[in-house]
Amino acid sequence: MFDVEDKLVLGMAGLRLLSGSIEIIAALLMLYYGTIERAVTVNAFLSLVGPIVLILVTTIGLIGLADKLDFTKMVLVMCGVALILYGVRS
To answer: Where are the transmembrane segments (predicted)?
Structure first.
C-alpha cells in the first residue's frame, strides 16, 4: 500500500495514528459521560498527550535529519518546538 523507504517515517506516522486514536477515544468518552465536568477532565488529559506526541515526532524527525542539517539549523528547529510548547503552556 505505502512504499516507505525510511523506517523513521513509519515511526512518525505511527505516533500520529496513535495520537489520533487517543483523540477519537477521548471524544467518545466525552459523549459517554455526557457531563461538562467529565469532558473538561478528559480534555485536560489530552492537553498532556499533544505536546508529548509533538516532542516525540519532532525528535524522530531530527534524528533522521541529523546527517543532513547543520547544527545551527537543528538548534533553530529545537528552539521553535520549545517556543510552541511555551506558547501553549502560557
So the answer is: 12-33, 45-65, 71-88
C-alpha radius of gyration, the chain, whole number: 17
Q: Which of 21, 12, 14, 20 shows the shortest CA–CA distance to 59?
A: 12
Cβ-Cβ contacts under 8 Å for 64 (sequence gap 6 or more): 6, 8, 9
Model pLDDT for residues 25-48, shown as the tens digit of each residue: 999 999 999 999 999 999 999 988
DSSP helix/strand/coil, 3: coil
Give residue limits of the domains in the chain. 7-89
> How many of the other CB atoms lie within 10 Å of CB of 12?
19
pTM given for the model? 0.75
pLDDT in tens, 52-85: 898 899 889 888 888 888 888 888 988 988 898 7
